[in-house]
């Protein structure tokens, strides 16, 4: 399950999930991701990330999380453009893990999450369980090498947020979900689930 699509473009769809699905929790090697947004405006963003095997004990402190990764850390920097119909420019390059970690430690806008991976049908899915100020947010994401069309959407996906900028990580770094979780729960109950219908046929509960 690649972080990138074709070349420097990624093709993905994102969904709000109420809790980590049982199938995802069976992942024997979840990944801890701690990432900082150095710039974010009008859909453009610059991100520095460190990641590695998730430790058994987690904390809300980004610095402690980076310490827990120890020597297993990898570092990257990515430049992103605005998303349009499930497609987004993303150029990601490797960084020295120590340098990346020191940048994230000093950054103001940080997101931390545990990522689980699983296969459902022909698609690879990732489940992100957010930590700290973004708890209790859980999101599911599916990526392909081209546009994500005619998707079988699992039952655990409560609603699609592919086109909801509030669920972009750069927004969550500045306005954490924990501060508006109750309001969103009320919004979802009032409006009900919504799915993007411009990317072929959605097959709900098809996995």
TrEMBL record:
SUPFAM superfamilies: CYTH-like phosphatases (SSF55154). Coiled coil: none annotated. Residues 8-174 form the CYTH domain. It comes from the Bacteria. PANTHER family: SLR0698 PROTEIN (PTHR40114). This is CYTH domain-containing protein.
């Amino acid at each position: 399950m690649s972080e990138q699509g074709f070349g420097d473009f990624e093709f993905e769809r994102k969904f709000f999930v109420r809790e980590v699905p049982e199938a995802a929790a069976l992942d024997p090697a979840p990944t801890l991701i701690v990432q900082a947004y150095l710039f974010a405006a009008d859909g453009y963003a610059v991100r520095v990330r460190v990641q590695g095997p998730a430790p058994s004990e987690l904390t809300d402190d980004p610095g402690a999380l980076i310490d827990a990764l120890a020597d297993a850390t990898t570092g990257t920097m990515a430049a992103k453009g605005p998303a349009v119909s499930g497609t987004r420019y993303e150029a990601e390059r490797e960084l020295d893990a120590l340098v990346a970690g020191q940048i994230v430690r000093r950054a103001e806008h940080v997101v931390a999450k545990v990522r689980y991976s699983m296969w459902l049908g022909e698609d690879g899915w990732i489940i992100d369980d957010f930590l700290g100020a973004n708890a209790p947010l859980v999101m599911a994401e599916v990526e392909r090498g081209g546009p994500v069309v005619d998707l079988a959407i699992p039952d655990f996906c409560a609603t699609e947020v592919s086109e909801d900028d509030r669920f972009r990580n750069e927004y969550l770094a500045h306005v954490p979900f924990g501060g508006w979780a109750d309001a969103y729960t009320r919004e979802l109950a009032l409006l009900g689930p919504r799915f993007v219908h411009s990317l072929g046929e959605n097959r709900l509960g098809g996995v």
